[in-house]
Write a structure and sequence with these properties.
There is one protein chain. This protein is α+β, with helices and mostly antiparallel strands and 94 residues long. The protein has one domain: Nuclear Transport Factor 2, Chain: A, CATH 3.10.450. Helices cover 35% and strands 39% of the residues. The protein is built from 3 helices and 5 strands, in the order αβαββββα. It has helices at 2-15, 27-37, 83-90; strands at residues 18-20, 41-50, 53-62, 65-72, 77-82. It has a 5-stranded antiparallel beta sheet. Strand 2 and strand 3 (53-62) form a beta hairpin.
């Protein structure tokens, strides 16, 4: 059953993600991402919709490992997690 339904959900999720530049983000979102990332390199930033709300996900390279920082549209920090582990398990890279 999932073989028929899952591709739809993956496609729908991908359509909700859009790569954006730091300069295009609201000021409060930029501030939170910069504070959380510190001097680490920001690899990419995506704007996505989760449960009807705009969320920004910044992928940051910290000592060779990729971490995701999620921030809502008001600049409120939501969560941070190591992205590399998830990508390694799936065999994906940025």
């Amino acid at each position: 059953m999932c073989s028929l339904a899952c591709p739809f959900f993956l496609t729908a999720a991908e359509e909700n993600e859009q790569t954006v530049k730091m300069s295009d983000l609201p000021a409060a979102v930029q501030t939170t991402i910069k504070d959380k990332a510190g001097s680490n390199e920001t690899v990419k930033i995506e704007k996505k919709t989760e449960e009807g709300k705009t969320v920004y996900e910044a992928v940051v390279n910290k000592k060779g490992k990729e971490w995701s920082i999620e921030v809502d549209a008001t600049g409120t920090f939501l969560k941070q997690y190591q992205e590399s582990k998830e990508k390694e398990e799936k065999g994906e890279k940025y």
